Structures are given as structure tokens and as C-alpha cells.
Amino acid sequence: MYIVEPRGCALFQFYTLNKIAYVAVKSSKETTMQGARQLMKVYVTRRIPQEGLKVLTEAGVCKVSMWDSDEPVPRAELLKGVSGAHGLLCLLSDRIDTEVLDAAGPSLKVISTLSVGFDHIAINEIKKRGVRLGYTPDVLTDATAELTVALLLATARRLPEGVQEVKSGGWSTWKPLWLCGYGLSGSTVGVIGLGRIGLAIARRLKPFGVKRLLYSGRSAKPQAAEVEGEHVPLDTLVTESDFVVVSCSLTSDTQGLCDKAFFSKMKSNAVFINTSRGTVVNQEDLYEALSSGQIAAAGLDVTTPEPLPTDHPLLTLKNCVILPHIGSATYSTRGIMAALSANNLLAGVMGTAMPSELIL
User: Fold this and answer.
1) pTM
2) Which residues of 254-288 are buried (b: 16+ CB within 10 A; e: fewer)?
């Protein structure tokens, strides 16, 4: 048991038992009202950054149960933990389906996900039950855009290959065409999905001397003028772009969008980048396109499944750079995400307006 001494008027007690953390919080005023108001039970499916835990503990209205590990909560523990909960704070890797909702019972008022995406949650089911949903848009835009540009450059300029050559002794002397890649200067870049993150990516790519910035989507975006973006049909984007960057949401229309037909339309020297969702891409078709030389290279921060099995064919290819879904992985971004998730959760259990609620 860990006890933190009072700070101001708040007393915090932190208990750890079998990887489940329990946090009970009372202010001096709360102590006098102990019999008048019951603390709300909330369940957190993973150890979250301290910024989020601080929000929950200092509110003085919640009894927090948390799976105290960086690894996903086992299914049985999740079902046990949500029982009787008023609020649930989950991650993108947690499958929140009918079974979980049934285990929580009618007390559940709100689900807060520490993510922008919400395809891991049974949306229709929570809508039917009147459960509110909070999420974390906007706050990870810059971090994801930075990672996308880094991945594009690493893939196009073959940086992982270069590092490996240095380590393995393959670097012998300067050679005119050794480890040559593709540059952004004078190129055409196509962004599929010019939303918040897509626009942030485009802003960062333009200073590299990109000649044309194409984007596709249901309609033209007024903000595209900032990056001189041209709204074009998807086929035009795919066939004319030197770099194709996928930054769209996962919907029924985009699932499996990047398939054999898609890759067959790309230039043979084109580079494909995906930092949206793994299921937007048919990975078998991508492997064929890369191994046959149909396209030059690919960089992925998202895959299906996650983590990708170590024996997956894509991992055998030198022209495929795969990252472990770290688009938002900066200390500041994850801290802000945790705080926003916690504030969404608190608002939900208290029945007030959330900072960021998905209207169902």
C-alpha cells in the first residue's frame, strides 16, 4: 500500500493488489459529506500517464479501479472490473462489445477512450443503452503528422537499410547508386483524407519543395488553399502521385481501400505511407506490390493485426518500413490525451458537458 501525505485539503490513498490499482479520494469537505454522497466507481483498463490519474484523484468524486500494467487487461479481468462501474476509461486495443456492456450493467453512464478512433467500441449498442462516449481528437494531430513525415522520409531515403549496412559492415566505400532513394523536391504528393491530421501532414511536407499537393475526399476543403491543395478523384491521386499518404478515417468505404487494383495504378517509383488504420490496407496485396516491384516502397505505422507477427511476409522486405503504432507517442501528447480522457470520464459520470464528446 502506498499512501501519499495530504496536499492542501486532499488525501490520496493508492493500493496495488494483483496489478489492480484502487484510488480512493476525499477532500476535507468530502469527508464531512461521506454519508450523503457515494463515490462513483470508474474502471481504467490500463496504467495511464500521471496527468490523467491526477485529474481523477483530485476530483474527489470517484473510486478508481485500474489495471496497473502497461499490457492489456485480460478479458476476464476486464469483465470483472467493469461490473457496477459508472464510468469506463479504455484504450484503442480494448474491445468494448455487448459482453463488456452487459458485465458493466445499467449503472454505466460513460465510456471515455484514450484515442481518436472508436472502432473498438460497439457504437450502436452504447447508443441504444444511452451511454455517452468521450474521445481525444485534435490533441494528437501534430505528433501524428510529425511521425508521418518522419516515416515518409525514412522509407523514401531508405534510412533503416542504411543503418543496417553500417552495423553489418556492408558500408565499404562511396558508390554512385548505392542506397539511392526518392526525394520530395519537385514531387507530387497525394493525401487521402485531408482532415485535421491530413492537413497537418501537408503543411509539413510543402516546405520540402513539393510541386503539387493532391488530396481526395467526398468534397473540396476550403482549408486546402493554405497548402495549395488540389481536390481530385482518388484514381487521379493514385496514378499521378510520387508519394501516397493515407490519413483517412476507417469507414465501410475505406476498409480495404488500398488493394491490388489500388496498387496497380500507382507509379513503379511511388512510395506508399499509411498512418491511419491497418484495415484500410489489404496487406497481402501490398506485399505482392512491393515484392514484385510494382511500387517502390511502403511505410506503415498501423497494421492488421497489432502487433504484427514476427514471421509476417512484410517484415522480410527491405523496402517496407513498419513501426509499432507510435503516431502519438510523445510524452506531452500522451499526457494531454490522458488528461482529456479523464476529464471526459468525470463529466460523463457527473452528467455535465464533456470537453470532447462524440455525439451518437
Assistant:
1) 0.85
2) beebbeeebbebbbeebbbbbbbbbbbbbbebbbe
